[in-house]
Every structure is written in structure tokens, then in C-alpha cells.
Design goal:
The chain is mainly α. It has one domain. The chain has 10 helices and no strands. The radius of gyration is 18 Å and the shape is elongated. Keywords: Membrane, Transmembrane, Transmembrane helix. Pfam families: DUF554 (PF04474). InterPro entries: DUF554.
Length: 232
């Protein structure tokens, strides 16, 4: 069952409702501090996954090649632009355009983030929902913060987020019989590195176009398998 995906979507909706009701009452220093805590939490999640790596060389190679592919294809820019074209077809006032810009950013953050993509795939591969449960906590409080600005409309972002999560979950679970334990361990380690990059970005330590790293998740298991065949 895609428990983690569903819980994540529900947390965004509940957080959006809380944000619409109480978000404007939050002190500014709390709103400014929480993203740094989110970043530290994401980095901790990443480290907990990286330490179980099986073939570090294969993971690093997948991350390098995957990032080169993502950067060449401008994945993050293309996804953001595509969402903007879909949601902003009509002429809008400056205020409406700003509103839609923030909404698109939230859809990318909640649904298309490295942690979201990795968490859904990991749930399908291993049945471990830990990453998505942790992400649900972060998304809950993030939805409260942005609910103060966008109101209850932030809840709408849970729809594309949950849809994408379910697609990734069911696609990955169908591949499970083909995988070995070292391949899954290396997949988790690669996802941990991407999650760590998400944490750096959230804490404003270093900006990454995180979606451009996601192709590494597709490459890491074939690379891990091939690396295991090498005679050393």
C-alpha cells in the first residue's frame, strides 16, 4: 500500500488548512527560522541513508552522469515552465501572476522535489515509508507557512503531488523482483545524497537545481549491478 504517499498528501492538506486559519498569527522570527530547521532535518535524513551504501563508486558515478543529463536537459527549468504554461494560460494581473508563481513553486517543492521522487520510489522498492513520513512532517509545517500567504489554495498542491507519488510508487513496486539488496542499498544512498542537497538548499547554504540530480536515481541501480560484476 502507498501509505507514505497518501500520508504525505494528507499532511499538506491539513497544513494548508492550519495555515489558512492561523498562519497570519505566526511571529516572523518563527517563519524565518523554521526553513533552516527543515534543512537540517533533510540533511540528517540524507546522512542516515548514505551510510548504508554498498558500492560508493557506482553511486558517485550515477550522481555525476545523472546530474550531467539533468543539467543538459534543464529538467528543473522545463518542469517549472511547463507547469506555468498549464496553469497560467490566460492574461493575469500582477497580483494573480505572483500568486500563480508561488503556487507553481509549491507544486515543484511538494511533488517534484528530489526527496518526494526518491521517497515514493523507495516506498515501492522496499516498502519503507520512513522518508515520506519524515517529508510529511516537513511538508506539514511548510504548508502552514505558505498557507499564511496563499490561504486554503495551498491544499490544491496535494493533488499533483499525490498523483505523481502514486505513479512512481506503482511503477517502482513492479520492478522489485528484478532488484538485489546491494542495488536497493545504493539506490537509497544516491537518494540520500540528493536529500542532503535538498537540505543545503532549504538552509540557503548552497543552491542546487535539485530536479537536475534526479536522473541519477534511474542510473544508480544499473550502475550498481554492473559494478558488482567487475572482478575486484
Amino acid at each position: 500500500m502507498p501509505t507514505g504517499v497518501l500520508v504525505n498528501g494528507i499532511c499538506v492538506v491539513i497544513g494548508g488548512i492550519f495555515g489558512g486559519l492561523f498562519g497570519k498569527k505566526l511571529p516572523k522570527y518563527i517563519v524565518d527560522t523554521l526553513p533552516n530547521i527543515f534543512g537540517i532535518s533533510a540533511m540528517s535524513m540524507g546522512i542516515s541513508l548514505i551510510v548504508h551504501v554498498s558500492s560508493l563508486s557506482a553511486v558517485i558515478l550515477a550522481l555525476i552522469v545523472g546530474t550531467l543529463i539533468g543539467e543538459t536537459l534543464h529538467l528543473e527549468t522545463r518542469i517549472s515552465s511547463g507547469l506555468h504554461r498549464i496553469l497560467c494560460r490566460n492574461q493575469q494581473s500582477d497580483r494573480q501572476a505572483e500568486f500563480m508563481s508561488v503556487m507553481i513553486s509549491m507544486i515543484v517543492l511538494f511533488g517534484f522535489s528530489g526527496t518526494g521522487v526518491f521517497g515514493a520510489l523507495n516506498s515501492g522498492f522496499s516498502g519503507d515509508h520512513t522518508i515520506l513520513f519524515a517529508k510529511s512532517i516537513l511538508d506539514f509545517f511548510t504548508a502552514i507557512i505558505f498557507g499564511a500567504t496563499l490561504g486554503y489554495a495551498i491544499c490544491i498542491t496535494a493533488v499533483p503531488q499525490t498523483t505523481l507519488g502514486l505513479i512512481l510508487f506503482f511503477c517502482s513496486s513492479s520492478l522489485l523482483p528484478l532488484l538485489t539488496d546491494p542495488m536497493i542499498a545504493d539506490f537509497k544512498a544516491c537518494g540520500g545524497m540528493i536529500t542532503f542537497a535538498v537540505g543545503l538548499k532549504m538552509s540557503k547554504i548552497k543552491h542546487y537545481n535539485v530536479l537536475n540530480l534526479v536522473p541519477a536515481l534511474v542510473l544508480v541501480m544499473p550502475f550498481s549491478y554492473l559494478w558488482g560484476l567487475l572482478p575486484f
